[in-house]
What does this fold into?
Amino acid sequence: SSGINAEYGGDAVTVSEFPLVIASRVNVPYLLGKEGVGHKIHGEMYSVTDSQLKELDSLEKYPDRYNRREISVVLKKPEPIVVPCYVYILDKFKDCLLELDMLEDYTAEHSETYVKPCDRTDLTHVSEVLDFSKSNLEQ
It folds into this structure.
């Protein structure tokens, strides 16, 4: 756990489709920077302070590995409303990741095979998903 005590904002779903895949031998969920492909993604939205956002940026290796992008989501409560939300997106991904099964959400069942960073013996899994020839520019 990251130790970030963020305030739960509610269940949300992306307005646009995105590819959400589980990849690499440590089974990391990746939201790929290919808007319009995949599914509308269901998840939870949280409110964070500026210092919590900096902690999340560090945890998510932003801006070196992931981009933090503002997208539109439908917040489902109390009444459905479209709001802006930050997500961490992998733009520098290998094209073969688009051939994987695309998910609509990442559940506790999916997380059972995830290998936590503290349990990994090396970082070679990163080369399984990153395409270092791509720039990390927002698309």
About this structure: The two ends are 30 Å apart (CA to CA). The mean pLDDT is 93. The first strand starts at residue 7 and ends at 18. The beta strands are 7-18, 20-23, 28-31, 39-47, 67-75, 81-89.
